[in-house]
């Protein structure tokens, strides 16, 4: 028989899966000998059984009976007794804390008879009737679904009738009358009487707590916090203690350190003569723990000892709920407390200094997401008067304030004049890059987290919100509409890339001292802080200590995805140990696009050669700059990848131009050229360009294109060698599916490298490798390894092609629905799908290495900077992850965490 019920004396803190966080910690405190009111926990397994069958398992009923009897024997009181009755609370408690999301019912066991017993025992008739009305109120709302306002209205009406303001001014007989009114309310609203039998109350309350796992708000919370929907909650049945039995009673919450700054000390609130829900409801101003010390020094001292005991035991910040019943302290809950990102770093190093944890443990106590939060400038949360326009998807964190601009050229012009601008587009495309670089923030009304805008902005560390569907961009009118509101180009808006919020007007921003540290080093960052700013100094020092430790323990190297020399420099300052992906197509935008267009459309060898001759010196200079910046470090240059159409004029626009010109009779060489161009664009038009002529296919089909790039790499390497540098260029072939594609490119590359080496009188060592971004490439890794010195997993395309999800479209389209319905728990474009895409990675790692033991393995898809994915890549044995420069510190930290 499954054991569905654990006494507090039977569990411990490591049983969170089964007992939930609250239950496991109540058991742990019981084990430690702290004063915990006796009780028991019904396991999450019981909840899962209930959820799958729709009724409480029969064994559970038996086990609950036995547990209640044990409790009654231990306390010498009975549930529902006429004399000195036992009352219990029924509290939810899942594995991960979901504050306020699920239900709790207090005072179970009170009925028309036992309320008399309670009055007698407590010697306080008013208290007894107040407890009973609270039970009916809470039970009515939570278990029987009666509208909570009806109870509050009845209570207010009673107070008005008696001419009093505070609940506490109602007398015992007032409350007795209120109980009768509440019972009538329950009967009328729920169609049943308030159950008098305590066991029925208990069973219904347990069921209600189980049900509260599935409320909309609980589901929403779990989605946001990425808590699986199938865990279920445990239920804690705890004997009641009362903080509302007079002036020598009360209830409170405390922390062993300040959860917002990390400072050590006792922090907390205390409310005399009150029950827990009064503190939460904020009906009276709370006192401090210092006040408690004055009011009840004995309980205070005992609480302080318990706090210290718990912090030493858990070796972490603890958050505690307690109640004092007539001068006796009871511990109602503890858990390792939530904290801000800054407090997490500070507390971790404080605990190291206090010899409570090791540096390895300190590393485990912080996360890359927290470090990421500390790196972004933030809106000053203290500022008021913000006007929220709408909320989109948070695509690239940060806080940006600037003039709204509607196109790339205006963005660049205004930025050149010194203005901060926010580029607002329906969606962005590669043509917008100039504007995106010039802008402090990017806002789009369409697209998801891996849309062009999102990926590029993240890469640049630019704040970005995408998919803000309420934003209607009207280019013709040069304005944006959000609902009724019209915002003209040039007006100021603010966007928060961590929350997706879009504000009208400026919101004050504060810069991050952690970024200064990453860019200028610890000493410089500390020197810039004022003497009073000890907290920030402690924070920056803590980040330095933990990150340095991560660097010493990690096995994964961290490279960056960077296409330009300035990006490369930034990546290097932030700790990148190489470039894992230089997307060369970004080098052919702007003025150079026409050169590629000429190359693609060339009809004669002469035209082609002409285009190539113009491109070669430009491309060589790009690589020289990059190799200079990355001197001594591997620099992986990917041959041109995107679909053809990105380099050609837009089909629709060109068709319109030609049609209009023809209609107007503008015959002449210009129109002739446009017609020829249109014919070529039509010829090359693809219904599904991401699966069309792109990557290695393009290189094999357009003569001279790859050769140009390979020659530029070879010549740039030679130039750097002549300059005395230590270039480590590598060439990477995109979107290969067959080893034959690799062989063809390799043959050509080796020939060019040999030619350049001979012409320059040098030895050129330029490894050639493959991106693994198609399932077939992964599944034939043994063969691919025969023609590749390294593999770099392009997990963006590998995810796209494994799931068959268009990376540019699906997130905004149906991922929300898919997450809601449990198909996805997180976007596979954000965090690697270990079962599917990850399996392909595993196969390719194992079979690739078996075929070529010295094969170097890395990843350069967006997942390379995603904390959870970094752990996966560590585990499968990659050599490095490559991510956008801004995420390099996050990846360093997570790679360290994965290794301890
Ligand atoms: C990838 O597909 O994962 C990749 C890095 O290439 P891109 O994002 O440029 O397609
Ligand atoms: Mg790709």
Automatic annotation (TrEMBL):
The active site is at residues 452, 860. InterPro entries: ATP_grasp_subdomain_1, PEP-util_enz_mobile_dom, PEP_util_AS, PEP_util_C, Phosphohistidine_dom_sf, PPDK_AMP/ATP-bd, Pyruvate_phosphate_dikinase, Pyrv/PenolPyrv_kinase-like_dom. Residues 420-500 form the PEP-utilising enzyme mobile domain. It comes from the Bacteria. Signal peptide: none annotated. Transmembrane segments: none annotated. Keywords: ATP-binding, Kinase, Magnesium, Metal-binding, Nucleotide-binding, Pyruvate, Transferase. The keyword Repressor does not apply. Its EC number is 2.7.9.1. Residues 544-896 form the PEP-utilising enzyme C-terminal domain. It catalyses: pyruvate + phosphate + ATP = phosphoenolpyruvate + AMP + diphosphate + H(+). Substrate binds at residues 583, 638, 773, 794-797. NCBIfam families: PRK05878.1 (NF004531), pyru_phos_dikin (TIGR01828). This is Pyruvate, phosphate dikinase.
């Amino acid at each position: 028989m499954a054991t569905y019920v654990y006494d507090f004396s039977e569990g411990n803190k490591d049983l969170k899966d089964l007992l939930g966080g609250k239950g496991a910690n109540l058991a742990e405190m019981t084990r430690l000998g702290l004063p915990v009111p006796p009780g028991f926990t019904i396991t999450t397994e019981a909840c899962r059984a209930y959820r799958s069958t729709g009724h409480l398992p029969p064994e559970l009923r038996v086990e609950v009976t036995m547990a209640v009897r044990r409790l009654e024997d231990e306390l010498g009181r009975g549930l529902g007794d006429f004399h000195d009755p036992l009352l219990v609370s029924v509290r939810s408690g899942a594995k991960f804390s979901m504050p306020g999301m699920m239900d709790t019912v207090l005072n179970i066991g009170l009925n028309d008879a036992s309320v008399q017993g309670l009055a007698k025992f407590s010697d306080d008739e008013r208290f007894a009737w107040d407890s009973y009305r609270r039970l009916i109120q809470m039970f009515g709302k939570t278990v029987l679904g009666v509208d909570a306002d009806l109870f509050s209205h009845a209570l207010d009406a009673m107070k008005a009738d008696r001419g009093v303001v505070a609940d506490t001014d109602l007398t015992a007989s007032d409350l007795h009358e209120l109980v009768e009114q509440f019972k009538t309310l329950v009967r009328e609203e729920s169609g049943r009487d308030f159950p008098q039998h305590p066991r029925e109350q208990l069973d219904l309350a347990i069921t209600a707590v189980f049900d509260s796992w599935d409320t909309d708000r609980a589901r929403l919370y779990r989605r946001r916090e990425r808590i699986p929907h199938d865990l279920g909650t445990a239920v804690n049945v705890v004997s009641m203690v009362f903080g509302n039995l007079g002036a020598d009673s009360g209830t409170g919450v405390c922390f062993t350190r300040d959860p917002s700054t990390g400072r050590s000390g006792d922090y907390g609130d205390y409310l005399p003569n009150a029950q827990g829900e009064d503190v939460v409801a904020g009906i009276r101003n709370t006192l401090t723990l210092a006040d408690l010390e004055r009011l009840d020094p004995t309980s205070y001292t005992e609480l302080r000892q318990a706090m210290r005991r718990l912090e030493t035991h858990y070796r972490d910040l603890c958050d505690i709920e307690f109640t004092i019943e007539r001068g006796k302290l009871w511990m109602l809950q503890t858990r390792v407390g939530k904290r801000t990102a800054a407090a997490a770093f500070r507390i971790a190093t404080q605990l190291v200094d206090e010899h409570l944890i090791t540096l390895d443990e300190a590393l485990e106590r912080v996360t890359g997401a927290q470090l990421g939060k500390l790196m972004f400038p933030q809106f000053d949360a203290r500022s008021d008067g913000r006007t929220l326009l709408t909320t989109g998807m948070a695509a690239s964190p940060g806080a940006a304030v600037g003039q709204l601009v509607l196109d790339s050229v205006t963005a660049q012009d205004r930025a050149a004049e010194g203005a901060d601008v926010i580029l607002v587009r329906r969606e962005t495309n590669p043509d917008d890059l100039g504007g995106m670089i010039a802008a402090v923030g990017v806002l789009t009304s369409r697209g998801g987290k891996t849309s062009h805008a999102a990926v590029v902005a993240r890469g640049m560390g630019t704040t970005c919100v995408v998919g803000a569907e309420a934003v209607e961009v009207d280019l013709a009118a040069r304005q944006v509409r959000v609902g009724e509101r019209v915002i003209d180009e040039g007006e100021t808006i603010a966007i928060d890339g961590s929350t997706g919020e879009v504000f009208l007007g400026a919101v004050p921003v504060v810069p991050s001292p952690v970024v200064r540290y990453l860019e200028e080093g610890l000493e410089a960052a500390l020197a810039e802080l004022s003497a009073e700013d000890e907290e920030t100094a402690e924070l920056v020092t803590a980040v330095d200590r933990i990150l340095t430790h991560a660097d010493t323990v990690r096995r994964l190297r961290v490279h960056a995805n960077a296409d330009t020399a300035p990006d490369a420099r930034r990546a290097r300052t932030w700790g990148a140990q190489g470039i894992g992906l230089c997307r060369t197509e970004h080098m052919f935008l702007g003025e150079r696009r026409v050169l590629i267009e000429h190359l693609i459309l060339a009809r004669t060898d002469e035209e082609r050669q002409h285009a190539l001759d113009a491109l070669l010196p430009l491309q060589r200079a790009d690589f020289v700059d990059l190799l200079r910046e990355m001197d001594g470090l591997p620099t992986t240059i990917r041959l041109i990848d995107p679909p053809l159409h990105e380099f050609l004029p837009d089909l629709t626009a060109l068709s319109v131009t030609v049609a209009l010109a023809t209609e107007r009779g503008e015959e002449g060489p210009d129109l002739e050229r446009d017609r020829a161009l249109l014919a070529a664009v039509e010829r090359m038009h693809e219904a599904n360009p991401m699966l069309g002529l792109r990557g290695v296919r393009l290189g094999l089909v357009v003569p001279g294109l790859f050769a140009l790039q390979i020659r530029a790499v070879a010549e740039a390497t030679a130039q750097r060698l002549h300059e005395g540098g230590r270039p480590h260029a590598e060439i990477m072939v995109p979107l290969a599916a067959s080893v034959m594609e690799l062989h063809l490119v390799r043959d050509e590359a080796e020939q060019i490298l040999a030619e350049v080496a001979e012409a320059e009188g040098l030895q050129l060592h330029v490894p050639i490798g493959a991106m693994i971004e198609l399932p077939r490439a992964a599944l034939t890794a043994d063969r691919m390894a025969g023609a590749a010195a390294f593999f770099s997993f392009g997990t963006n395309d590998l995810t796209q092609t494994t799931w068959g999800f268009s990376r540019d479209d699906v997130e905004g389209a149906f991922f929300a629905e898919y997450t809601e319905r449990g198909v996805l728990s997180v976007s596979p474009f954000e965090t690697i799908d270990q079962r599917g895409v990850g399996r392909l990675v595993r196969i390719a790692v194992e079979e690739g290495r078996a075929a070529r033991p010295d094969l170097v393995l890395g990843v350069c898809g967006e997942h390379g900077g995603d904390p959870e994915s970094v752990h996966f890549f560590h585990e499968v044995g990659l050599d490095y992850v490559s991510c956008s420069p801004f995420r390099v510190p996050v990846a360093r930290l997570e790679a360290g965490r994965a290794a301890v």
